[in-house]
Write a structure and sequence with these properties.
transcription regulation, single chain, four-stranded antiparallel beta sheet, about 40% helix, about 240 residues, globular, alpha+beta, Arc Repressor Mutant, subunit A, 9 helices, DNA-binding transcription factor activity, about 25% strand, Jelly Rolls, 2 domains
Length: about 240
């Protein structure tokens, strides 16, 4: 047995992923034996755009950004993922396709990996997993559409406010009716996420601080003091 497989871990990757939620402990143990583990250093690439990929990546610990290069050579961040989330699901249904995004570790990150062959075996034995994967793909398409709509909005203040709200829900710890957020992105990466300059991010953050909607603590921490007030500000 592979002593690095998930079945030996205190909390297997499979228990963290919604698509495996309905499986029995026996099924989870069998899947855990298929999983390979790898650690990535901060800034290291997990997948590169236009490179072959046949792997489902499950984030066990850490944060990962998915991004594409625009025709102008600028990075466009598509999603920020954290522990329990996964990517590469489209590779499972394809055959020899190239990745349409790059993935980079935003911090030291632990990953669980399943190959296409392993996933085909799992899906054959548990057909309902394919429905959960389809649901996940649908949700991500909706997110991509929302991102495209946000980028089409001319007002950068609105884009930045929506990003703060998203980071609050996903990465914030509730505190006094707001969220205490350990920011997973640098100022430059946040700018790339919402399609503005770094200077615009800093200027709008200062504006939201003046309005007492947020509080900045250093470069990596932001307190969203009143999410409802920020949402109302956007109306």
């Amino acid at each position: 047995m592979n002593k690095h497989s998930c079945q030996y871990a205190a909390e297997p990757c499979t228990r963290k992923v919604p698509i495996f939620a309905a499986l029995t402990d026996q099924d989870l143990s069998r899947i855990g034996a298929m999983i390979k583990h790898r650690k990535y250093d901060k800034g290291q690439a997990l997948v590169l755009e236009e490179q072959p990929s046949d792997t489902l990546f499950i984030i066990r610990q850490g944060h990962v950004k998915l991004s594409k290069m625009t025709p102008q050579g600028k990075e466009q961040i598509l999603r920020i993922l954290t522990a329990g989330e996964f990517f590469g699901e489209l590779s499972i249904f394809g055959g020899g396709e190239l990745s349409n995004f790059s993935a980079y570790a935003l911090q030291d990150t632990a990953i669980c990996k399943l190959t296409r062959t392993d996933m085909e075996t799992i899906i054959t034995e548990n057909p309902d997993i394919s429905l959960r994967l389809l649901k996940a793909v649908t949700q991500r398409l909706a997110h991509t559409e929302n991102l495209a709509q946000s980028l089409a909005t001319k007002d950068p203040e609105i884009r930045i406010a929506h990003m703060i709200l998203e980071l609050g829900v996903k990465y914030g710890k509730q505190r006094d009716g707001g969220f205490d957020i350990q920011l997973p992105l640098s100022r430059e990466e946040m700018a790339n996420y919402v399609g503005v300059t770094r200077e615009t991010i800093s200027r709008k953050f200062a504006r939201f601080e003046e309005l007492k909607l947020i509080k900045l603590i250093g470069n990596k921490r932001l307190v969203l003091k009143d999410p409802a007030a920020l949402e109302k500000y956007l109306d």
